[in-house]
């Protein structure tokens, strides 16, 4: 079995040559590592080897384009509601990914020289981090600790469309073109996209949320859209930072919902310009934020194809997306 205990460059090269691999959109190499298409193998291994979780850590886990940015802004506001008046919320000056960095692609972006300063100094207590890693690839120290994980998932067709439009705006190294949607959809169905397959990623966290409900909370983008206030209350309770009835009466929850709405966040200068990630501008993290936009992009054949894949994989697990 492949373990995460790799250290040398030689071992890394050996591992790479032993794994199935693909060039993603003609540019970035992806490796099928631990049952997931991984586009940042070195960073993943580095954080698997070195990251030390603390029991108080909180992780926002997701497959890309399922509402990560939104959930980060909500969690940030839950924890910081007493530190700043809403008009001084740091979300008005910073992109949510700056305030809650991704473990593997920001903290460990440079695998040889991870940004431990941010981890140790800049992050407030508790440390809140994002991750797109599937559950089986999380560093062992996370699995062995009592830290909490909030997983957000979304209807796969909306996830697909959101990622398709996002990747169209990716850096110039990729050859993503308007007319490649069907080709990319084929890859999506096969799970061959960063952090895919979709079904395995979602199911991994779903099962864990059933087995360890105090540790893993499973959320849906659609529920957040439908009733953000109730979801926010559940989130507050899960992370042991519940809203009091006075706060609720004073409209604190409503304020946070409004502060974190896509309309509001889109107006923030840091979200209009600038980059947290070198390969994409911050503005592409905020598009429509709607449920069901996929009907404008997918034909019935495409839908049928993925529905078949999903119904087979999800059979018997009681999860509907
Ligand atoms: P769409 O492309 O369907 O609009 P992620 O943050 O995981 O990359 O997900 C991005 C998706 O979440 C995009 O979906 C984006 O528009 C949506 N989104 C971002 N911020 C949001 C917010 N505050 N409220 C609702 N949706 C939001």
From TrEMBL:
EC number of the protein: 2.8.2.-
Gene3D superfamilies tied to this protein: P-loop containing nucleotide triphosphate hydrolases (3.40.50.300)
One Pfam family recorded for the sequence: Sulfotransfer_1
Record-annotated Sulfotransferase domain positions: 55-317
One Gene Ontology CC term in the entry: cytoplasm
Entry's Gene Ontology molecular function annotations: sulfotransferase activity
InterPro entries hit by this protein: P-loop_NTPase (IPR027417), Sulfotransferase_dom (IPR000863)
Keyword Transferase: yes
Key words, A-Z: Transferase
Keyword Transferase: yes
GO biological process: sulfation
Superkingdom, taxonomy of origin: Eukaryota
PANTHER family per UniProt: SULFOTRANSFERASE SULT
UniProt similarity note: Belongs to the sulfotransferase 1 family.
Protein name in the entry: Sulfotransferase
Organism of provenance: Spinacia oleracea
């Amino acid at each position: 079995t492949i373990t995460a205990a790799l250290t040398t460059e030689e071992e890394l090269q050996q591992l790479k040559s032993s794994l199935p691999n693909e060039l993603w959109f003609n540019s970035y190499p992806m490796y099928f590592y631990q049952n997931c298409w991984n586009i940042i193998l070195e960073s993943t291994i580095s954080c698997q080897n070195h990251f030390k979780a603390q029991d108080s850590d909180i992780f926002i886990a997701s497959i890309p384009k399922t509402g990560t940015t939104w959930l980060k802004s909500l969690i940030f506001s839950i924890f910081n509601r007493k530190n700043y008046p809403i008009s001084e919320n740091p979300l008005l000056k910073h992109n949510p990914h700056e305030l809650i960095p991704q473990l593997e692609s920001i903290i460990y972006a440079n695998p040889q020289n991870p940004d431990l300063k941010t981890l140790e100094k800049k992050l407030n207590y508790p440390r809140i981090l994002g991750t797109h890693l599937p559950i089986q690839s999380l560093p062992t120290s996370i699995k062995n600790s009592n830290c909490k994980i909030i997983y957000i998932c979304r209807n796969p067709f909306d996830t697909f469309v959101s990622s398709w439009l996002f990747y169209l705006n990716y850096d110039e190294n990729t050859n993503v073109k308007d007319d490649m949607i069907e080709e990319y959809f084929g890859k999506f169905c096969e799970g061959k996209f960063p952090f895919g397959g979709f079904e395995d990623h979602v199911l991994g966290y779903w099962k864990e949320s059933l087995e360890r409900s105090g540790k893993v909370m499973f959320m849906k983008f659609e529920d957040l859209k439908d009733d953000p206030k109730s979801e926010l209350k559940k989130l507050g309770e899960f992370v042991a930072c519940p809203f009091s009835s006075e706060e609720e009466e004073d409209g604190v929850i409503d304020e946070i919902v409004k502060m974190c709405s896509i309309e509001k966040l889109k107006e923030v200068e840091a979200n209009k310009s600038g980059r947290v990630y070198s390969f994409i501008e911050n503005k592409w993290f905020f598009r429509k934020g709607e449920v069901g936009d996929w009907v404008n992009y997918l034909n019935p054949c495409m839908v049928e194809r993925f529905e078949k894949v999903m119904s087979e994989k999800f059979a018997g697990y009681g999860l509907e997306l």
